[in-house]
Predict the 3D structure of the following.
Amino acid sequence: MQMARMLTPHTYAPSRTLRRFCVVVFAISFGVQAHAQDWVHIESSNGVDRIRIAAAGFKPLSSDPATTGYKHLFDLTLYSDLNSAGIFDLVSQSLAPMSEPGTPAEMAVAQWSAAPASAAMVAFGSLNVIGGNIVVDGWLYDTHNTVDPKVLGQQYSEPASDESTRHIAHEFADEIILRLGGGLPGIAETHIFYVNEQGGNKEIWEMDYDGQEQHQITRLGTITLSPRISPDGNRLAFASLGHDGWNIRVFSMLLGRMVSFPAIGGTNLSPAWSSDGRQIAFSSSRSGDPEIYIGDEAGNNLRRITAYVGPDVSPVWNPRTNSQLAWISGRTGLPQLYIMDSDGTNVQRMTDGGYATSPSWSPNGQFIAFAWDRKYGPGVPGGQDIYVMEVATRKWIQLTHDTGRCDFPSWSPDGRHIVFESGSGKSSDIWTMLADGTGRHKLTTNGTGTMPNWSWR
Amino acid sequence: MNLTTRSFRTFTQLAALAAILGIAGCHHKTAAAPEPAPPQETAAAPTATLSADPLAIDLGQSVVLNWRTENATAVTIDGIGSVNLNGTTNASPSTSTNFHLTATGPGGSTEASVRVTVRIPEVPTAPTAGPADQTDDTLFHQNVQDVFFDYDSSDIRPDAATSIAAAAAFLTAHPSAKVLIGGYCDDRGSAEYNLALGETRANAAKNALVAAGVDASRLRVISYGKEKQFCTDENDACWQQNRRAQFSLDR
């Protein structure tokens, strides 16, 4: 409806904003390189572009304890999803009105647009348990449009459980983010795959993007590393240590079991899917030295694309074009970040020293996140942190500081978040943060989580 | 959008399932059925199912046993005893175990079982050997000694070259011995790169042995990167211990 389209005054293109933000950021970092100071604390993006949104508590339509429990879980999850989206200035609980309007008739928009809430958008609705199903009615209102404020009106229904309550909140949050975030889907329904250590073995686990629903996927009873989920979410590739050494192996998420992938000899590591799911790149030492190979999605029709002595490992595709790869090579000594075309030509070195590993290419193709210890050496204490480099200019910015040894960054599909591992000594956990280094919080707590990989959707 | 594609996939899966069930159910009898025999007077035989979740655990973890029976009056599970006719219980076996259930009733008795596998963690040394093998192992390790590397390097140092020469002499004198070469790194640095570096270290040791006259087909290489450590102190001495190519008899 034409009216509805005019009701979203705050739509903007996030890529434009991110680009604008990054121009500011890289201007700062370029200046910093000339000084002795090693890093600058960057404040989160200027408040001008963030939409001020309020999430009202949803009205429970019955007073039994089960419904009340689900209502609290729903409110908590919705609030958390909107808060971590990276595009909102969420009205805090202390400034929001106490009312819980359950229908448009009960919504008094003036309450929410007035100070201290001063919300431009408000999400509200009701929650009920009917016949064993949770039923949620949710609305999103534009407080400045008095004629026709409705931006969204949705109903959700799922068999009642904590997991489905969270799922409905995630769906509603994603709908809001899609509508207000310039057309980029939200990440509230995405997942993170990671390595979990138990009793001397390492298996692949999966969790929701917010750390909920952690559960085990592989049961191979050995060391299994480098999980990489396929773009369609159906296949999970990883490197696993068998009796004959390391092989790339694939688990079918649809069938719930391992499926075949050729074992080609040598030590095979770090698989990486192209963003169309048609090709896999990985490192193999079948020729006697670890080199980068590319094959089709079944692991056939392999071709080798590097040919230098020295370890070549951790390839990752430019997901925007699938015609470039970044990878780590020790051909000159300490591992450095390189990029090349997918036929192995046009090799360019990106880092100028230190110890660089674990690249992840951003969804818009413009940035590479990686782990870097710029002062690596015998006897010299060096800190390994997450950095983001702009591919076109090689200008970089350091995202983590003084939080332990950080590694294995992985971009979210909306390009606004990065998940990574951080730890000290034997202990390591999975953390998430916004792509500017702010909003950092822990997702796992056992001290046994490493090598996270964000799903594509 | 996420919701649409997931709903669509669920819908097609349900539709496929419905089609399969529909086909299985579409079985019309065209011939006239014979007269049914008069009903029997005996009781129905008991049925039982027993399941475990998960089916494989690490030593120290527990599984949930779940059983259902029909037409039974007494149910026992070996190692647990008498149990309810339907129920669940936890178990923490210390070794791989076949759980065996017996259900008895007026109609007879029946059994059900499920196997739970218990994984015992491995240690990063050569496989356990019998008495005769132990002499072989001792002799082997006296003469074929691990070689050590500088940080971030897979070059064979002078001290490593000496060890390689001695090892090659022993292996030439014992032509039936096959060798597994493990490549290791210290725990600084990144898991993926260290696996590749460990690989180049093991390969460097292998190539050095081949250059000294040992047949390549007797040598097998596995990289462990920083996944299995010989010591865990955060100091130069321990880091040097971990930067090695380890030789063991390959059985």
